[in-house]
Design a protein that fits this description.
By secondary structure, the protein is an all-alpha fold. It has 6 helices and no strands. It has helices spanning 3-13, 18-30, 34-47, 52-69, 72-88, 95-107. Helix 3 packs antiparallel against helix 4 (52-69). It is globular, with a radius of gyration of 14 Å. 31% of the residues are buried.
Length: 110
């Protein structure tokens, strides 16, 4: 079995488990299915909006989807999530650096 099939099976038997949902979201994110990852990560954030790690991956998924679609709304959402991360934890690893990269992408936009 592949990772996605395995985590889908875990999720179907435990749909309210945030750890399983996070792992499934990461499988989607790193296999190029950013839309599915965003949906799962947003579901986790509804239950726990202060989880910076989940917020970090949600921003990453939005950037990946932005790069695929060119939809600047997604990039703005990702930037907002990274700013929220830095508000809660100014030393969060890589958030400042990635926010700068996103600002550079935004400046090249329409």
């Amino acid at each position: 079995l592949d990772y996605q099939t395995t985590w889908n099976r875990f999720f179907l038997s435990n749909p309210d488990d945030p750890d399983i949902l996070l792992n499934l979201a990461l499988v989607h994110l790193f296999s190029g299915e950013a839309k599915k990852a965003i949906a799962s990560l947003d579901r986790i954030l509804k239950a726990n909006p202060y989880n910076n790690s989940v917020k970090f991956y949600a921003g990453m998924a939005r950037v990946r989807q932005f790069l695929k679609s060119g939809d600047f709304f997604l990039l703005n959402q990702a930037m907002a999530q990274y700013n929220e991360i830095l508000d809660l934890d100014p030393k969060f690893p890589q958030a400042k650096r990635l926010l700068k990269i996103m600002a550079d992408l935004k400046s090249q936009g329409p």
